[in-house]
Write a structure and sequence with these properties.
The chain is an all-alpha fold. Helix content is 72%, strand content 0%. The protein is globular, with a radius of gyration of 22 Å.
Length: 372
């Protein structure tokens, strides 16, 4: 029985077996870790509010085949930062090689429990790609060759299938087209990436119309979202906006489409529509404090300072360990000439901020000196 019959891991398996990123047993390779686990754990002990530190420890544990412990650290990372795409992606994959994990779940709840766990991992995979369609997965060992090399190798394969077998993109193996799209996007061959995603969206839509059950977590709307992101990256703003709106027509719960539309409207200084999209994202996913923080930041840039302060206070209540919230709340309070509040907020930021945020830490220290 296939424990994880998902496209995410079908694509991952294609990557690791065909592109040199697999272990000798044919499973997922360990992620790339450049430092000893003890060093990573010491860094986490010094920066316990840093989601990246939890992620790095998870990668160290994964490389030691401590899969369950790695999974726990990854969950800590996304609890601190619900928009940490790479951590969500890692959660989707980390338990793949862990046979004891799946056996334990089957003992506890049978095939139903295994299916539920598989769906959870599928959702994490899809969630990661909705947060960041251009996620760089090389750190997880999926691509051990440069993206350019992967793109050229798979382009040659697709050309052979076209010329020798008479296949168009829509008829080629989906994992092949999917991995080719990833490599094309990361090697700046964006027209090819767009063509790949369009083909995947077409075939997915055909399955929807025929009533065929998909064995993959990525649905038509997910491919359309990625198409919109590619159009956005290539500067086709009107087309990207149209496709994002089409995504929302098909799935009003796709909060990331609201987020991307907000980015597009902010770039055009269309604050009214940007705020509308930020509020819509919060309504869809109210437990994600990052969205409340982003609403407050947009309100700040739009000059709606009282609303910005309230939104950031709400974000602070929902995510009290997120140092970024305190930074922006302090900025807004300073802009509102609330010196005592701004000083207290910036001081909290300095207590929570990780060492890697050194540039902003230095700027806040200067702001505090000015508030004395």
């Amino acid at each position: 029985m296939r424990l994880l019959p998902v496209h995410a891991l079908g694509a991952a398996a294609f990557c690791v077996s065909a592109l040199g990123g697999c272990s000798g047993s044919g499973g997922l390779a360990a992620p790339l870790v450049n430092e000893r686990l003890g060093v990573l754990q010491a860094r986490l002990a010094a920066d316990t509010n840093d989601p990246v530190a939890y992620y790095n420890v998870a990668m160290g544990l994964w490389s030691e085949k401590e899969y369950d412990r790695a999974d726990g650290e990854l969950r800590q990372a996304v609890a601190l930062d619900p928009e940490f795409a790479l951590a969500h992606f890692a959660i989707a994959l980390v338990e793949l090689p862990n046979e004891s994990h799946w056996k334990r779940i089957r003992r506890q709840g049978g095939d139903t429990a295994v299916a539920q766990e598989a769906r959870y991992r599928e959702r994490e995979y899809t969630h990661a790609l909705m947060i960041d369609p251009f996620l760089d997965v090389r750190a997880l060992g999926l691509f051990r060759q440069p993206y350019d090399s992967v793109y050229l190798n798979l382009t040659a394969t697709m050309t052979w299938l076209r010329d020798r077998r008479g296949l168009i993109r829509d008829s080629m193996p989906r994992s092949l087209v999917w991995v080719h799209s990833i490599a094309a996007a990361h090697s700046n061959h964006l027209p090819d990436a767009i063509a790949d995603i369009q083909a995947l969206a077409r075939t997915s839509r055909q399955r929807d119309l025929s009533g065929t059950v998909s064995a993959t977590p990525l649905e038509t709307n997910n491919y359309l979202y990625m198409l919109a992101a590619l159009l956005q990256r290539t500067g086709h703003v009107e087309d990207a906006t149209r496709v994002y709106l089409e995504v929302l027509t098909g799935d009003v719960a796709n909060y990331e489409a609201h987020v991307q539309l907000a980015h597009l409207y902010e770039a055009a200084t269309d604050w009214g529509h940007a705020l509308e999209q930020r509020r819509a994202a919060v309504e869809v996913y109210p437990e994600n404090h990052c969205l409340q923080m982003d609403l407050g930041v947009t309100q700040y840039h739009a000059g709606v300072l009282p609303d910005a302060e309230q939104s950031l206070r709400d974000a602070r209540e929902a995510g009290p360990r997120d140092y970024r919230v305190y930074y922006w709340l302090g900025v807004v309070q300073q802009a509102r000439r609330e010196k005592a509040d701004a000083r207290a907020t910036f001081e909290t930021y300095l207590r929570l901020a990780p060492a890697r945020d050194s540039v902003r830490v230095a700027a806040v220290r200067q702001q505090l000196a000015a508030l004395q």
